[in-house]
Amino acid sequence: MATQPARNPFRPTFGVSPTILAGRDSLLHSFRLGLAEGPGSPFRALLISGSRGMGKTVLLNEFEDAAAGQGWITLRAYPDDSMVRTLVDSAIPEALQSLDGPQSKRMLSSVAIPGIATVTAIADPSKKDPIPTLVSRLRELATKLRNNGTGILITLDELQSADVSQLHILATAVQDLLRDDFDIALVAAGLPEGIDRLLQHEGTTFIRRAERITLTPVSITDSVQMFTDTTAEGGKQMDPEAAKIAAHISVGYPYLMQLTGSLAWAQSALDNTDTITTTQVNHVRDEVIRRMGMQVHEPSLHQVPDGELTILYAMAQLSEQGSAMQDPMVSTGDIAQLMNVKPNALSMQRKQLLTRGLVEVPKYGYLSFTLPYMREHLLNNPQHRPI
Ligand SMILES: Nc1ncnc2c1ncn2[C@@H]1O[C@H](COP(=O)(O)OP(=O)(O)O)[C@@H](O)[C@H]1O
Ligand SMILES: [Mg+2]
């Protein structure tokens, strides 16, 4: 029996770093090497792609921490239409100021003009260019950091929402500094389908050439280890067999790993046990699928028109119930047959579903769901079925 209630160490929340990070050691190691290696390293321009919940934001945060550990400064770029402005006007000036330390405040000069309120101008001695550009600002920061032997990491999350022209300015600036041998790295992360669309634009050549990291599911071994270690971190144990079941339920998908762990932990709290058992893990499986449906699938199906929904329901119906690790693929021919149409009548909707990232093409002529438990979600919610 547990003596005192322990806090749940699992974190089924988007953008929140897990207690134990599973399966990203080699990526982190490559990244650290890339920073230490020098401006010629291909790891200075990275493009992380992965579906929702695959751990992109968390990995970006880990990269930021790794960079900080090597004395680098991180600038976060936000994918809106004032991305460059925000960098130039606030993020970089703040970084420069932090380098100067708390003592050396920027000099303020006040001029009193009779009859008019006091005018305060900020005199920045390092500012030569009256209108600082991203390049000039980055150079200024990189030059200061060069003295310490460190550099600038720029991170950009939700790349798929970025403005192409803003991205072009950012990429050009980074390229400019790299050419002059400054220590700078750019890491962007986003949804695969959104990234592909973005990269079709001219002006994204640099990003297109970036080293592409496609986040894949965590291996069963790493996942089992994560369940064991996270539970221990929270002051309980997970039965080894229970950890295996949890790893299978969550199919290496990081959000599901946290969700499964969190619910199993809660079940053990209800049962007042300090070891999480196989029975408890099995008991929460349906709730895991339900929560995944509510949190991930339902929002992604909101905007999907009936024609596309019908295809999804047909896929769900046709794919046999099996292991969720490899969602079984369904041939487009079979879908068309079930829907009583010619296969080429589906091509527009099929393309839309691919663009939305809801389905993938595992091999020519076939479709499968991108995310685990979409099939279960659809079958469990027939009320949304258009026909
Ligand atoms: N490597 C990992 N190991 C364990 N849990 C992870 C890992 N990466 C992410 N998570 C967890 O998965 C969930 C989704 O992560 P997040 O980075 O927000 O995904 P994304 O940005 O790809 O949508 C969060 O609950 C997070 O704590
Ligand atoms: Mg994210």
Automatic annotation (TrEMBL):
Top-level taxon of the source organism: Bacteria
InterPro entries: AAA_16, P-loop_NTPase
Any matching Pfam family: AAA_16
SUPFAM superfamilies, per database record: P-loop containing nucleoside triphosphate hydrolases (SSF52540)
Residue stretches making up the Orc1-like AAA ATPase domain: 21-176
PANTHER family, A to Z: ATPASE DOMAIN-CONTAINING PROTEIN, DNA-BINDING PROTEIN-RELATED
Protein name per Swiss-Prot or TrEMBL: Orc1-like AAA ATPase domain-containing protein
